[in-house]
Specification:
alpha+beta
């Protein structure tokens, strides 16, 4: 009888975590920014059909990065849970904290289970209150950990670089236009390659997916998706500052990627949707 193959629990968990992080990093970042009237979610997403940001309930929104089929299952489960709880009890009993806890239990169970692969997703659950002090923003990772974020948060893609930009430029109490410009500028800020610098790019309005939870809306449902016609006047004229424009690079050898080339897909890697 052959000896069964053994992997230590620590190594198994590390391998599963590395697998999930690799899948999440292939997607493009999602930014959440708290502003004076609510919470804004923004991402670079050329697809008009596959959304990263969606509504869960009256004052609650959901955003995700990673595998589309996996976070779409989580979104649908959250909508069903919210509807059932609001119908059976009261609409006020549906809270972002309760949904975040439910998502954490689901993701934690899947991650620790040996029978299936971990979900390659990270998600935001945002809820607005009657004033800015009551707003809540939760970030959930692939293993079920929950973080209570304040001010701003980033997940997926070059999250560290985008978060660094937000850390330097974010100020509490921004209006919608300023928060939108900050989020879009942060998404366009990325590493320039091996030289240790950074390069900024202007993201086309048609490639942006933006939604807000706006407490000033008169309807009970506070979720609003901002279409390109609404984004253009809010963003105004955009151009790269001369001091921050990328410098010309020496030609690269054949077959070698330029450090300033835009990110491309993963080739034979598993698909991550929305396109990233």
């Amino acid at each position: 009888m052959s000896t069964p193959f053994y992997v230590s629990p620590e190594q198994l968990m590390k391998d599963r975590a590395d697998f999930a992080r690799k899948g999440i990093s292939r997607g493009r970042s999602v930014v959440a920014v708290q502003f004076a009237d609510g919470i804004l979610f923004a991402s670079e997403n050329p697809s008009a059909a596959l959304h990263k940001v969606s509504e869960i309930y009256d004052r609650i929104a959901f955003a995700a990065v990673g595998r589309y089929n996996e976070f779409e299952n989580l979104r649908i489960a959250g909508v069903r849970l919210a509807d059932m709880r609001g119908y059976a009890y009261d609409r006020r009993d549906v809270t972002g904290r309760g949904l975040a806890n439910a998502y954490a239990q689901t993701l934690g169970t899947i991650f620790s289970s040996g029978g299936e692969k971990p979900y390659e997703v990270e998600i935001f659950v945002g809820e607005i209150g009657d004033d800015a002090a009551d707003d809540q923003l939760y970030r959930l990772t692939y293993d079920g950990q929950v973080a209570d974020e304040h001010g701003y948060a980033v997940m997926g893609g070059a999250a560290d670089v985008v978060a660094g930009y937000l850390r330097e430029h974010y100020m509490p109490g921004l209006d919608l236009s300023a928060a939108l410009r900050l989020a879009v500028d942060a998404l366009g800020h990325s590493e320039a390659g091996t030289n240790g610098g950074s390069v900024d790019r202007v993201i086309e309005v048609s490639d942006l997916e933006v939604a807000v939870l706006d407490r000033t809306r008169s309807q009970p449902r506070k979720f609003l998706r901002l279409v390109p016609a609404r984004l253009e006047p809010l963003l105004g004229e955009r151009s790269l500052p001369p001091a921050e424009a990328p410098e010309e690079q020496a030609p690269t050898e054949a077959g070698q990627d330029s450090p300033l080339a835009p990110p491309t897909g993963g080739g034979d890697e598993p698909p991550v949707a929305p396109p990233g």
